[in-house]
C-alpha cells in the first residue's frame, strides 16, 4: 500500500438521503467517477430532517463544508421537502453569518437517485471553492 | 453504552482490499474502547463468515456488530439477519459502506481510500455504541401490483401474481399486447410462433378475474412508496365500441384512405390509419391512429362501431408494488453503417424476419429473388467505439435459427455468416451445428477489421479478411445483406424517469445486484423484468418475470410491511407544545396531550413515517429520530473528524 499525506483537500460532510441521493452516490462509485476522498457521507431518511445544530457542529468541529444532497421533488415523503430543506439551509446560513462564518460553507443541491455525475460535479466544485476560500 | 462490539472488515475479494488497506483499518479500530474484536474477512457475506459471526456473537456475548463492506442496499438485511440468528436485536447492527463510497469511488487514491475507510468504520462504531434494541413499525401494504408492459415478461408476471392472489393492473402503452415477440414467427427451440405464444399468454391473462388489462395506457404520475404507491394512468381511446360487427370492422379498414409506414413490420410495408397489426391480434378490436387519421369519415359510413367521441381517461390506481417489463428496441443502424440506408438490399434482422413472414414460395426483396444472403453479426452490439459494449445474447441463436428456416423454406438459398465469434450458448449449439451441416458458410473477423459492404454496378459485395482461413480476403456477391442487430433500451422510456429507476452503463434499467438482488431496484417496491433490464431471450425474460413477480408479491403478500422503527420521539421534559412539529408533519402523526398539567406533543408511531421533517422546526430541540438522535449524529461527525 502506498503511504503519505493524503488529507490536504477540504473536508466535506455530505448529508445524503437513504432512498434518493445515497443510491446516486453509490452509483458514482460503481461507475468509478472519482471525487476527493475527503468527502464523507452520512445518510438521513429525508433532507428536511437535518437539524441546523448538526451542520453547525460539523463546521465548528472541523469540516470545511457541508453539502446537503437533497431529495428535491423526488422525496418519497412529500412535496414540501424541497421547501422545508430550503428553509433549513436559509436558517443555518443566517446562523453562520451571525457567527462570522462564511454561509457558502453550506451548500445544497437536489440529487436524484441517478444523479451520480451531478453529485461528483457538485462536490468537486465545492472542494475547489473551499480550497480557494481557505487561502484567502 | 456498548463495550463488546464486533467489527468485521471485508476484502470483497479484492473489490475493497485492492484499494483499501483492510488490515490497517482493522488495527486502527481495534483500539476503540467499545470494540471487543475486529477481524478482516475475504467475503463477509459468505456463509462461512456468517456462521463465524453468529458464533462470535453467541460465544463472546457481543452487544453490537459492525460490518464494513459494500453498500447497505445490498447486505444490510443479510447482516441484520445474522444478528437475529445469533439472538441479538437486529438494530444493534450498523453497516459501513467502504466499497461503493470508498474503494470504488477512490480507486485512484489508495492512501486516501484507506484513511476514509478508517473514519467511516469509526463512525459506524460510534453509532452502534448507543444503538437501542427496537421493533419494526408495521404498516398496511396494498395487495395489488401494477405490471407495466404486456409483452411476454409482463403477461407471464401478471399470471403468476394473479395466481398467487394479488390484484394485478397490467398496463400496456400500445393498443395490442405481445410487445416484440408478437413480431416474430417461428421461435427457436419450441418452433411455436410468437403469435401463438402471445395468444396462449393472453388467454391465460384474461382467464384471471384479478387481472385488469389496460391498453393504450401509460403511467403519467407517481407518488407514495413501497406498499402504497398511487399511480395516475392515462388511457387513450381506440375510437371503437366494444360491440361491433367483424365484417364492418374489416370494411372500415378497407375504406380508410390513409397509408403510413407500418412500424410493426419495421416499415417494410404500409398500414391504414385504422389498423391491427395482424388479423388475430389481441385485443381483437382495431384501433384508430389519431395522429395520422384525416377524419375523412369514410370508416364511420361503413362501420357503426367507430366512435370519435371517446375521450382520454385518467385513472388513479393504488398498488403495493410496481413491476416494470417495458422491453427493448432493436438497434437501428446509422445511415451508411454496413451500407444501411444507402444500399437498397441491406436490411436489419427484424426486417428480414418480417420479409420471410410475407414470402411464401420464393424469397423476394425489391422484386428480385434472393439466393445469396450475407448476415453481418454484432451490428450495434460489442461496439468498440460506440456505447453498446455489451453482447445482445439472443442474436446469434435467433439469426442462425432463421437462416436454417430460410434454407428449408426456399430452394437454392446460400447463407454466408460474417461473424465475430458465434455465441449460441446452451442448447442452441445444436442449431449452429445443423446450420454448418446444411452447408452454411461461416467467415470471421475481429472487431478492428469488420467486413465491408460495397455496391459495384448492380451487385452488392461483402468483403472480409477471414481469420478462419489465415486472413484470406474473401468476398460474396449478396442478393440480400442482413445486419444482425442487437437490443437497445426503449427510446421512449419515460416510466423509468418517472419512477427514477437507475440505469446501468448499458443504459438499461439497473438491478441492485446481478446475483444477489437481480430483480430489485434501489427504489423500494419497484422490480424489473425481461429485456428492460438488459438483452435477454424469451426464456430468460420469462424467468426474470417469474422472479420479479415473486419478489413483488413477497412485499405485499402479508398485507403489511415491516418498516424501519426510526420514528420520531418527543423529549417530554423539553417539549413546550408550540404546534410547529404538527404543522410540519405531512401525515398528521403528531397530536398534543396533557401530561402532569403540561401540554406536550405526542408522536403516533403507527402513523409516523420517520421522515424527520418535524425535527428541525422544534424551537426546544425536543424531537429526535430513534436511532438518529443528536448524540448519535454528533458522535458520527466527531468520528469522521478523528485523527487516523
Write up what this structure looks like.
- The complex is a heterodimer of chains A (136) and B (644).
- Chain A contains 4 helices and 4 strands.
- With 136 residues, chain A is of the alpha/beta class.
- Chain A has a single domain, classed as Rossmann fold (3-Layer(aba) Sandwich), CATH 3.40.50.
- In chain A, strand 3, helix 3 and strand 4 form a beta-alpha-beta unit.
- The longest helix of chain A is centred in the last third of the chain and has 20 residues, at 116-135.
- Chain B has 5 domains: 5-134 and 633-640, Rossmann fold, CATH 3.40.50; 144-236 and 312-327 and 492-559, FAD/NAD(P)-binding domain, CATH 3.50.50.60; 246-302, no CATH class; 329-488, FAD/NAD(P)-binding domain (3-Layer(bba) Sandwich), CATH 3.50.50.60; 567-625, Alpha-Beta Plaits (2-Layer Sandwich).
- Chain B is 28% helix and 25% strand.
- Chains A and B meet through helix 1, strand 2, helix 2 and helix 3 of A and helix 4, helix 5 and helix 16 of B.
Roughly what fraction of the amino acids of chain B lie in strands? 25-35%
**SSE order of chain A, one letter for each helix or strand:** EHEHEHEH
Number of helices of chain B: 16
Tell me the name of the CATH class of chain A: Alpha Beta
- Tally of DSSP β-strands of chain A: 4
What structural category characterises the helix and strand content of chain B?
alpha/beta
